[in-house]
């Protein structure tokens, strides 16, 4: 009977998500066309730049303190483990099902990156509001749940846009050639071509000279002239020193080409601001609490952030419409991803989290343990749809994968949530 009660508690938040998702799907069909492509783009922009950062910032600022940061240290490690284990399982799936090369990045990304933002931030606080929830006082539980889920969203955003983004990019047919240019330049810099011989100023760049003169018609005077210039550019440096200098220059070029804007998404910036406000006592006194001089600023951010959850859920439903037309393509790949995300990873997560708790590495908080476990059980990240659109590869396949995994997640997340609550109590 106890298990049945937990099942009902776990089912209610998932049903809420399903109802709002279904509404988003209905609004996206051609007959209504309320959530058309342009509307979805505009709403995605609002969620990405406004609603999501506001929700993350306000939630972390209210609940995270310096003490809680120390307590929650394992969450980044736990999310990293979901990505590493998911990638290994995805690699096995790619080899077994012989996934086409241009889709391998998408498959690895779907297996590695879960929906660490939308679903936890909806499900976990909703669980606290259910009568008979196993996590104690409703207000305290809701407050902590929102903080845990917000931190999960912020960390997940960093991992997804730094790891999954580059996975899809590497396997995309039209890859940016910047990395290749840097790599080729590092190889080619160790040898002088014929054009280098005709341009002695190349030596002034500090590159080491190892040449094979294959143009026998060159005059000895020209060769001597070239060797004089190369001798001057050495400036007393040994060959090893020149190699080190050349490698450092190439590294600097590579660092300049890394787009830090991808890593520092609006949600990540919101998380950083929220953490600073929560951890620094002076900022906390100014902004947090009814007696704070500028509490109206914090209240306004909270109001804007609350719009994030329903809008994101509607968009998930609207985006699933794309998968209805292509369902049935690449069935082994879709089944494999669904099994990994809905069955294998959640089971592995149980072993990891219970081992960490048994070793005493994290504080014994049932709600915190539940969130760590839930991070293994969520379907693929919705952000992958955006990433595939950016590179123009696997958009249709991504929509089908999302439709299949999220349909199965309606059952799997409910069952795993029930089991997790029973396990942590």
UniProtKB/TrEMBL annotation:
InterPro entries: Mem_transp_PIN-like, PILS1/3/4/5/7. Belongs to the auxin efflux carrier (TC 2.A.69.2) family. Involved in cellular auxin homeostasis by regulating auxin metabolism. Regulates intracellular auxin accumulation at the endoplasmic reticulum and thus auxin availability for nuclear auxin signaling. Keywords: Auxin signaling pathway, Endoplasmic reticulum, Membrane, Transmembrane, Transmembrane helix, Transport. This is Protein PIN-LIKES 3. GO terms for biological process: auxin-activated signaling pathway; endoplasmic reticulum to cytosol auxin transport. It is found in: Endoplasmic reticulum membrane. It is a multi-pass membrane protein.
